TrEMBL record:
<keyword id="KW-0274">FAD</keyword>
<keyword id="KW-0285">Flavoprotein</keyword>
<dbReference type="InterPro" id="IPR012951">
    <property type="entry name" value="BBE"/>
</dbReference>
<dbReference type="InterPro" id="IPR016169">
    <property type="entry name" value="FAD-bd_PCMH_sub2"/>
</dbReference>
<dbReference type="GO" id="GO:0071949">
    <property type="term" value="F:FAD binding"/>
</dbReference>
<dbReference type="InterPro" id="IPR006093">
    <property type="entry name" value="Oxy_OxRdtase_FAD_BS"/>
</dbReference>
<dbReference type="InterPro" id="IPR016166">
    <property type="entry name" value="FAD-bd_PCMH"/>
</dbReference>
<keyword id="KW-0560">Oxidoreductase</keyword>
<dbReference type="Pfam" id="PF01565">
    <property type="entry name" value="FAD_binding_4"/>
</dbReference>
<dbReference type="InterPro" id="IPR006094">
    <property type="entry name" value="Oxid_FAD_bind_N"/>
</dbReference>
<dbReference type="InterPro" id="IPR036318">
    <property type="entry name" value="FAD-bd_PCMH-like_sf"/>
</dbReference>
<dbReference type="GO" id="GO:0016491">
    <property type="term" value="F:oxidoreductase activity"/>
</dbReference>
<dbReference type="Pfam" id="PF08031">
    <property type="entry name" value="BBE"/>
</dbReference>
<protein>
    <submittedName>
        <fullName>FAD-binding oxidoreductase</fullName>
    </submittedName>
</protein>
<dbReference type="InterPro" id="IPR050416">
    <property type="entry name" value="FAD-linked_Oxidoreductase"/>
</dbReference>
<dbReference type="InterPro" id="IPR016167">
    <property type="entry name" value="FAD-bd_PCMH_sub1"/>
</dbReference>
<feature type="domain" description="FAD-binding PCMH-type">
    <location>
        <begin position="42"/>
        <end position="213"/>
    </location>
</feature>
Amino acid sequence: MATTTASTEAVTVADLRERFRGRVLEPGDEGYDDARAVWNGMIDRRPSVLAQCAGVADVMAAVDFGRENEMLVAVKGGGHHIAGDAVCDDGLVVDLSEMRSVRVDPDARTASVEPGATLADFDHEAQAFGLAAPLGINSTTGVAGLTLGGGFGWLTRKYGMTVDNLRSVDVVTADGELRHASEAENSDLFWGLRGGSGNFGVATSFEFDLHEVGPEVLAGPVVYSGDDAADVLRHVRDFNEEAPDEAAVWAILRKAPPLPFLPSDTHGVGVLIVVAFYAGDVDEGEQVLEPLRSYGDPIADAVGPHRYAEFQQSFDPLLTEGARNYWKSHNFDELPDEAIDTAVEYAAEIPSPLSEIFFAQLGGEMARVPDDATAYPHRDAEYAMNVHTRWEDPADDDRCIAWAREFYDAMAPHATGGLYVNFSGDEGQQALAYGENYDRLAELKAEYDPTNLFRMNRNVEPVD
């Protein structure tokens, strides 16, 4: 907050409360500590003011309050906040987590979604009509943060990225004004919101195109011993090269979690989990995925028909809130043998039973969009890797982070040089995240946020 007397500060916060329909919290208020907590247990920050918005008018009032008092402003949605940007010390948090409405128009096949909604909220409403949009793979992920960073998941190869299915966004910009952004209105801002993270304002509503999906899909994991990981990963890579867009196959290296379909003697042992998804007819998917599932000597095969919304929640138990998280990311246009061998080598030394390395298959419809069509630039990536380091004891911080950074560096010679911004746990990687679109984003930032009010993000500084 700008330098001021205690009495002036109190009046200012009181004035905000008078203009607010939601709750305004300060240190010591009931609910303050719960409201400042985020999913990543490493983040422990204490804002001066937490504005829990109930609607757009509250968002406008909060942005005005932050700007007029020259406060550091963070924006909190409904999801994970890996890097911790959703909260700040001493400043203002614009908390959108109570704005969770999802309204589906089944005839138009569209959905209007508020910024506090999670994937579970979205899927619950859309699947009532057999509809879905390409989102992530964990139901506790926030729709807003996922979308603003680009967004991909099981449906991306068939229907494109999350931002490719975005029709419009309502956003409160740094001047406190509500703007509607679409291809027809404020199209430059709309371009920047599709992958430019939270740099341009506070999004208050997203409108998505929907597609017929499910309610039943063919999906699930095939689990192999870690001893077979290098061989099986090569087979997965070769299978993916010829697979149709309906198929998405991800590979995960980790210690076996205590999943009910795994023998108890494998729990805690190194494994490769190959997760397959087919966005089409279940019987057709059985034929397409057969060469994948029949390979080698798996420990378990749990691929089968699942309700789409339930499958989206299947990995939630592995991603509960409160653990300590540090993530690193690379993009790859291919997975050469050397990259596979390096990943398997480091997986054998994975620093905690909660950590994992995963390779998300991309391509398909996502790759048919030009690099400069949206702010998200990495359309040539065939895989995104997440070094998902996760542990519980603060005493393990240095060891776990060191392992993640060393592995990240070891994989760099095989990567494209780009990364997925939502998987970035470090500052200073903006050029890698935004690629050749960075300069245009900086010009756009100068137009809509020239003072860099919204800088608690993977920040793009405005050009002078």
